[in-house]
TrEMBL record, chain A:
Keyword Ligase: yes
Designated name of the protein: Phenylalanine--tRNA ligase beta subunit
CDD domains, sorted: PheRS_beta_core, tRNA_bind_bactPheRS
Alphabetically ordered keywords of this record: Aminoacyl-tRNA synthetase, ATP-binding, Cytoplasm, Ligase, Magnesium, Metal-binding, Nucleotide-binding, Protein biosynthesis, RNA-binding, tRNA-binding
PROSITE patterns reported for this sequence: B5, FDX_ACB, TRBD
Family recorded in the similarity comment: Belongs to the phenylalanyl-tRNA synthetase beta subunit family. Type 1 subfamily.
Cofactor names: Mg(2+)
Reaction catalysed by this enzyme: tRNA(Phe) + L-phenylalanine + ATP = L-phenylalanyl-tRNA(Phe) + AMP + diphosphate + H(+)
Details of cofactor binding: Binds 2 magnesium ions per tetramer.
SMART domains associated with the record: B3_4, B5, FDX-ACB
InterPro entries xrefs: aa-tRNA-synth_II/BPL/LPL (IPR045864), B3/B4_tRNA-bd (IPR005146), DNA-bd_dom_put_sf (IPR009061), Fdx_antiC-bd (IPR005121), Fdx_antiC-bd_sf (IPR036690), NA-bd_OB-fold (IPR012340), Phe-tRNA-ligase_IIc_bsu (IPR045060), Phe-tRNA-ligase_IIc_bsu_bact (IPR004532)
Main location per the UniProt record: cytoplasm
Annotated ranges, domain FDX-ACB: 710-803
Automatic annotation (TrEMBL), chain B:
Subunit structure: Tetramer of two alpha and two beta subunits.
Catalytic activity: tRNA(Phe) + L-phenylalanine + ATP = L-phenylalanyl-tRNA(Phe) + AMP + diphosphate + H(+)
UniProt cross-references to PROSITE patterns, sorted A to Z: AA_TRNA_LIGASE_II (PS50862)
Keyword Nucleotide-binding found: yes
Native source organism of the sequence: Mesorhizobium alhagi CCNWXJ12-2
Keyword Metal-binding: yes
GO biological process: phenylalanyl-tRNA aminoacylation
Name of one Pfam family that matches: Phe_tRNA-synt_N
GO CC terms of this entry: cytoplasm
Molecular-function GO term, any one: phenylalanine-tRNA ligase activity
Gene behind the chain: pheS
Enzyme Commission designation: 6.1.1.20
Protein name, per record: Phenylalanine--tRNA ligase alpha subunit
Amino acid sequence: MKFTLSWLKDHLETDATLGEIVERLTSIGLEVESVNDKAALKPFVIAKVLTAQKHPDADKLQVLSVDTGDGKPVQVVCGAPNARAGLVGAFAAPGAYIPGIDTTLAVGKIRGVESHGMMCSERELQLSDEHTGIIDLPADAPVGTSFAAYAGLDDPIIEIGLTPNRPDATSIHGIARDLAASGLGRLTGGAIMPHAGNGMCPIKVKLDFGDTPPLCHGFALRLVRGVKNGPSPKWMQQRLIAIGLRPINALVDITNYITFDRGRPLHVFDAAKVKGNLTVRRAREGEKVLALDSWEYELTPEMCVIADEKGIESIAGIMGGEHSGCDENTTDVLIESALWEPLNIARTGRELGIITDARYRFERGVDPEFMVPGLELATRMVLEFCGGEPTEEEVVGYAGHTPKIVSFPVSEVKRLTGLDVPKAESLEILSRLGFTPQGDADIVDVTVPSWRPDIDGKADLVEEIMRIHGVDKIAPQPLISHEAVNAKILTTLQIRTRAARRALAVRGMMEAVTWSFIPARHAEAFGGGRPELKLSNPIAADMSDMRPSLLPGLIAAAQRNADRGLSDVALFEVSGTYEGAAPEDQRRVATGIRRGTAKLEGSGRHWAGNAGAVGVFDAKADALAALEACGAPVDKLQIEAGGPAWYHPGRSGVIKLGPKTVLGHFGEFHPKTLEVLDVSGPLCGFEVFVDAVPEPKAKPTRTKPRLDLSPFQAVKRDFAFVVDKAVEAGALTRAAAAADKKLIAGVSVFDIFEGASLGADKKSVAIEVSIQPVEKTLTDEDFEALAGRIVDNVKKQTGGVLRG
Amino acid sequence: MNETISNLDTLEASLMAEIASAADEQTIEAVRVSALGKKGSVSDMLKTLGSMSPEERQLKGPAINGLKNRVTEALAARKAELKDAAISARLIAEKVDVTLPVRQSPAERGRIHPISQVTDEITAIFADMGFSIAEGPDIETDYYNFTSLNFPESHPAREMHDTFFLNPGPDGERKLLRTHTSPVQIRTMEAQKPPIRIVIPGKTYRMDSDATHTPMFHQVEGLVIDKTANVANMRWVLEEFCKAFFEVPSLKMRFRPSYFPFTEPSLEVDIQCDRSRPGEVRFGEGNDWLEILGCGMVHPNVLRFGGLDPDEYQGFAWGMGIDRIAMLKYGMPDLRAFFDADVRWLSHYGFRPLDLPTLFGGLSS
């Protein structure tokens, strides 16, 4: 919402400076977004050319002697063809910045003659594109005074950002009312005298909504005959230009002016182009209208129109029709002031994609009680600028306004804000804003003015009092804290999410945050793509589906890095995935990928040993680290071969806790998956379901279990077994460990060998068994017996035989 | 007799020469054996003492024993000398180029994303004020995102939020991506009776894309509900938060009346800063104002939707962009880069994994 200072002062009698007004506007909730104080035009003064002589060395230049008002004429070299003795124009002295040519003037020599300033064209002042000559003012323009002030160009322009709840502040009068209420002056110019008409309006209006809810709550119309439509007065044009509107003709300019002056949009029809009476109705399906913006719009019965006997003349409350628009030939004008259903205006405007100053006001809610006064004001201006003879008003469908009354305990101000505002002051503020408080009790009945549809209850009145009294008067008060040391505040899931992040970052991975929506083909490749997880209005075609997994986003990110020449990257993300649209379908997943040679210990070539390509075991280690950080019982986890379809079936695994709980997957990726993602390079990744890790059991004590350290020396023994290739190493180590759970402290695999010597379908698995005697030092016989049990159990469980 | 003495001198000279010329420990050992071994030359001399007369022994004994001692000493000295030389030679041989680079430890390479780090910073501050952390789903219903937060149907306020909608599900309900974290206010009120003191960080979505807007972004919201919480308390909480977060001893804040459907009264908050240096913002000084958050007293209708009586309970709420305050504090120029996962950006703007924000150790290092 833009307005100029002088326009505001039509409604506000005040001595306040521009700076004070701007500051007050922001502090009462009308946030000033910009102020153009026209300082750029300050250097230009009115000056008179005393003499003009031809330049000795240039045909097209003249040497002027210019009176700038300080009594001492200055010499100016000028190339303008209209420069002549006696001309009064706009002068800029050396040091002035000329916006139109982006130059700061200096004293200069032009073809050997000194020039002490410049007589300017309109283009040089950025007033217009006019550059055929310098500005030529009337001879009585006061020399030595500000050019901008003389030309009415020094009126500062203020722009405020309006919140949607303040339709009253879409009018300059309303803004002035707020400022006056805050003590910054006196509100003026409110009363509008009705204007008597001559005879009935010959054009009748019918609101015809049949059985459907009415979309119009009042319609006022008046015909003015015999107008002469030409340009509007210069002051009005200047104000309209200042706020960014293009002056068109007096009739149209008046409607635009009142839209801003009073927040009251109006429409004018050329009566000669209207056939028969007007009907306000819903548009018919597919009905079309050519609007004033020269676009043709196709309408629906959800939209309200004003039609004559031939068809639609206006899209109600949004934009008039081209056909009956007013131009210089208009002699009889119909002025319309109506009340439209705000929700319908909002919806229609949105669907048609039309943004107008009228829509802006109607969808927020205009003052119903100003419908008729608005028409009166327009009539007065039409008569003043264009002459003519008005008829009486035709008003239909307006049932009058029933004011809201809020029962207001004045103590609410203190309760909600902490401010001690005396009751009298609270009520005084409300009165100045146009509210009518009644009663002397602690609870007063406050009548809400017709221009404040946003006020519904007590809290709204508290806000009015708070903002006018001054928010800065509210002193901060400490919030009484709990009277104890704070206990743990994070939930298990929050703790695990944080722990997983730090654990993965410690493994050299970088945390990424990728989009929650991914391309449909990526979603489908990772088990997603369900219709209810597709956006109906994605911002881009490749941001269409809520992700079923974090992997596609991370893999795509790794490829982007590779395309920039960074091929070895390790990325992770701990965030949400979406299995459905219900709240419980949003999972919390820790996911990571490694690309190229981005291994735990480092990537790329190194003098001490190059890093190899990443693979399934890098992903497995990451997954287990994440799980351990999340508090999963890592020693109880089972690893099963083969992950979901997007993984390499022979190089992936599932991590389970018990037969049913899947805690994660890891592995390298299926070549077809990589093809869908259009990526290359060694890649591996994992997914760990943070929310599937069971809650820790409530512990009755923080005491750790007793630690028993055996005094007997631990020993290690190596075994190599030949087994079928299909036998999993995990099964073999489990079998060895189970041979004596008391003595065997650990079993690890230190070598895998496959070769022709063993047979095509065989392999050798070498294990190291850590033995920890707990009762006595073991004898050779004891070791023999233990080794026998290990060999027997491995044979029984896996068919493996000790390698010879 | 003199002959023996002169023999001793010769032997000593010869042994000393051998010791001196021994080049390694093996040779020294051979010399020792040849002199002091069972059949060594000096041992042989010593053996002759037993067959001597006392007088002769008295004369020759010291001479032979003297020889033995001197040879023993010389052997030990030379041995030590050779050992030192051998160690020196080994040390020289073992020299490496210590300027060769070592691999960086994984913990030094890894990074925490600024959004996570700043969320942890926020958590640390509000935890100190007795708040807990609440979360909610990204996919929401119209009811939780709008209706229950007092957005009237078709009201222009809904247009302030350019909402992403999902295709209708099997039940015909059209869900949406939450446009703010405020739905969690209602979900919390439904699940828990006051007093409520929560902060709600999370992902939010709006159809918007430029240097400071992305279709997905992060917000943190706060909610306090009890029987007395008012605007004055809210000012205190927010001023304390901003000072702590920007790590400055004092900070001027400007509260401006504004409008949000879910609060009444509503305020927007600007903080004092100095933006006169290109590419840098300093807080707690300067003459610029920067909008940082919106806040207000929870609207009575929102309390009612949450099942609370607005005449019994009251409270305040506020919301701000995590990404935005991260940009302000740490100076990232473009929001879009937050979601691009460029490892150069992550390495530069990200945080080391063991830099955990705490109040006792400082939020940032």
